[in-house]
Amino acid sequence: MTAEARILSIVAAQCRRSVTELRLSDTPETLGLDSMALVEILFALEEDFGLSLPFNANTPEAGGVDFSTLAALISGVEAHLAEAAP
């Protein structure tokens, strides 16, 4: 399974939708995700990929993982994976 597929699977489970219903342009708002859901997604991503991802749910615009769209989230996680690669 690709990193993108794993990320989409985690997000789909959190918002109780099928992966096929997700679009890369989806935002937390269009998916009905609040800050607590974003933190739960973050923890699931960290556990699944064995990474430590920077994110502050109180100030998501302050940097770290970009949850603005699914495309941005995927790109950010993939960038952290590339940095962590030996």
Strand element count = 0
Low-confidence runs: none
Q: Mean pLDDT, rounded to whole units? A: 89
The total count of helices amounts to: 4
Name of the CATH first level? Mainly Alpha
What sort of overall outline do the alpha carbons produce when their principal axes are compared? globular
Give the termini separation.
20 Å
CATH topology: Non-ribosomal Peptide Synthetase Peptidyl Carrier Protein, Chain A
Instruction: List SSEs in N-to-C order.
Output: HHHH
Question: Do you know the CATH architecture?
Answer: Orthogonal Bundle
List the helices and strands and how they pair.
Elements: H1 3-15, H2 28-31, H3 35-49, H4 70-84
Helix pairs in contact: 1-3, 1-4
